[in-house]
Design a protein that fits this description.
The protein is an alpha+beta fold. It is 19% helix and 32% strand. Pfam families: Glyco_hydro_2, Glyco_hydro_2_C, Glyco_hydro_2_N.
């Protein structure tokens, strides 16, 4: 089912708020069959880790349990009832009263259960959910659970952000007609000044008549059609693009005679995306990316979605002059994608496949190498989980005009034996699911241009580079030479667009130094300026995404002081000097 909407035939009840909560323990036996013990409550949506003051819960490994009592409203007896979770990090089991109704693996995409016949109008029922944050070598993202010296489990993982867990996005009860719109796939295009919208509607039940209308911002019909498939044409179409986010509304109605059986509406942005030579074209015009890698990470609520923080973050990006961002390193909340549609931001939409590289630390600091693509780590089961993540991401976000490319992995071991055999089938799946958008991935320095084995599979290549920080630290002159040589190599070999997806330096807000001291605000700003000089020399560079928009929490590590400090804003969104450097470059022209 597509994202829940309210319409003349559909009603949704938001189940956000305080749920009963308890971490799993040996004392719990079939807890879904009774009221959860204790008095703990946890807000939804939120990650649970930073809310409670017990350190063992912040670092909890395994299941936690959520529970609440709900009532099905009177009048819902004619329709089906769907229980929908926007996400559960990373695996969930759902029970209605004493009955198991669904399970899901994957921490950032929605899932649902049809609970019709298990709940009844005017009566209460109990929802119990277990959420398991365990990561293994066969999950996406991967990880490993080890036993510590005190005999307790500890979760290790291969990505540099904290493993926040729980019900971090909304939960809904949805009343939908038994005969209903089950899915919509849209492809937009341009024929001169005429916009085209190809639609493909899937239904559940026996739909007699399918009526489709495209409405402008004044809710006036500008095109219409009938049937499950068709093409709508709009003369002198208003195009969706950066800074001009014009959205039409597609209204699909299922009719039985003159009776509306179901009505579903969907925002539509008419635009095209094309990779041509060394350029990425939006609506036929070359586009230069200015923006950030980001994280869903805010104080206390952590990865829990919050509209106030979302709007403020977009305002700060606009203030900097940004026009795009990457959903590093997982799909963001659907509300973020909807807002990007309305605000005209371009999005590189990424799967949670971060950490498929056992040698990134070894490559940076000289440790030994281990095979990433092997039976012991990234194996056939890992690949299947990765494929599932790609399928669920594209299914969820395929109709967003803001999404102009799919990124299927971040900083994988693309120079290793087995890398091509692992990724080539996944690229094929992604292209079959969506042949209209380009594919990319984010390359890291441990897989250099002359050793990378997968770059030719993609339409453009994302480059993550930290010259001046992890390499040539405190020596920006040498870093500048090395960065230019590196990027020239990528351009010469692959002859495709290159998007800088990460560059930057850790910076302590308030630390100032005249002599180019690493960790100072001046050094971060100088490193960005040096990088910009190089980017402007490379013809294939189509833009830059700074790492990171804001400081964020990570797991424990001796190079991390209260998290990753590469943000140009602090975690509570105060600007560092680098934010002003970017604003000058992005709003006043290249500097």
């Amino acid at each position: 089912m597509p994202k829940p909407v309210d319409s003349s035939t559909r009603t949704n009840i938001l189940l956000d708020g305080l749920w009963r909560f308890v971490p799993d323990s040996e004392d719990l036996h079939e807890p879904w069959k009774t009221t959860l013990p204790g008095s703990m409550e946890c807000p939804v949506p939120a990650s649970y880790n930073d809310i409670f003051v017990n350190p063992s819960l912040r670092n909890h490994v395994g299941k936690v349990w959520y529970q609440r009592i709900c009532h099905l409203p009177r009048g819902w007896d004619q329709d089906d009832t769907i229980l929908r979770f926007d996400a559960a990090t990373h695996a969930a089991e759902v029970y209605i009263d004493d009955e198991h109704v669904t399970s899901h693996v994957g921490g950032y995409t929605p899932f649902q259960a049809d609970i019709s016949g298990k709940v009844y109008p005017g009566r209460s029922f109990r929802i119990t959910v277990s959420v398991d944050n365990t990561l293994t070598n066969e999950t996406i993202p991967p990880g490993k659970v080890i036993t510590t010296g005190n005999g307790k489990p500890s979760q290790t993982y291969y990505h540099d952000f904290f493993n926040y867990s729980g019900l971090s996005r909304s939960v809904r009860l949805c009343s939908v007609p038994k005969t209903r719109v089950e899915d919509i796939t849209l492809i937009t295009g341009l024929e001169g000044s005429t916009g085209t919208v190809i639609y493909d509607v899937a239904t559940h039940g026996d739909a007699k008549t399918v009526q489709v209308e495209l409405l402008d911002v004044d809710h006036k019909a500008v095109a219409s059609g009938k049937g499950l498939k068709g093409e709508l044409k709009v003369s002198d179409a208003n195009l969706w693009g950066p800074g001009t986010p014009y959205l039409y509304t597609l209204r699909v109605r299922l009719l039985d005679g003159s009776t509306i059986v179901d009505e579903y509406t969907l925002s539509v942005g008419i635009r095209t995306v094309e990779v041509k030579g060394l350029q990425i074209l939006i609506n036929g015009k070359p586009f230069q990316f200015k923006g950030f890698g980001r994280h869903e990470d805010i104080p206390i609520q952590a990865k829990g979605h919050n509209d106030a923080w979302m709007v403020h973050d977009f305002e700060l990006m606009k203030w900097c002059g940004a026009n795009s961002f990457r959903t590093s390193h997982y799909p963001y909340a659907e509300d973020v994608m909807d807002y990007a549609d309305r605000q005209g931001f371009l999005v590189i939409d990424e799967t949670p496949a971060v950490g498929l590289n056992l040698n990134i630390v070894g490559g940076l600091f000289g440790a030994g190498r281990k095979p990433t693509f092997s039976k012991e780590f990234a194996n056939d089961n890992t690949q299947k989980a990765h494929e599932s993540a790609i399928r669920e991401l594209i299914q969820r976000d395929k109709n967003h005009p803001c999404v102009i490319a799919w990124s299927i992995t971040n900083e994988c071991g693309s120079d290793e034996d087995g890398a091509r055999e692992y990724f080539e089938p996944l690229v094929k799946v992604a292209r079959q699911l969506d042949p209209t958008r380009p594919l990319t991935y984010a390359n890291c320095l441990t897989s250099p241009w002359d050793k990378d084995r997968i770059g030719d599979l993609f339409d453009f290549i994302g480059i993550n580079r930290y010259y001046g920080w992890y390499q040539n630290n405190a020596d920006l002159a040498s870093a500048e030479i090395a960065l230019e040589k590196d990027l020239q190599g990528w351009q010469s070999r692959f002859k495709c667009p290159l998007l800088i997806m990460e560059y930057g330096a850790d910076t302590m807000a308030g630390l100032h130094a005249m002599e180019g001291l690493p960790w100072s605000e001046e050094y971060q700003s100088d490193l960005l300026t040096m990088s910009h000089r190089v980017f402007d020399k490379i013809e294939a560079i189509v833009g830059e995404h700074v790492w990171n928009f804001a400081d964020f929490q990570t797991g424990p590590g001796i190079i991390r002081v209260d998290g990753n400090k590469k943000g140009v804003f602090t975690r509570d969104r105060r600007p560092k000097m680098a934010a002003h450097t970017l604003r000058k470059r992005w709003t006043e022209g290249r500097q």
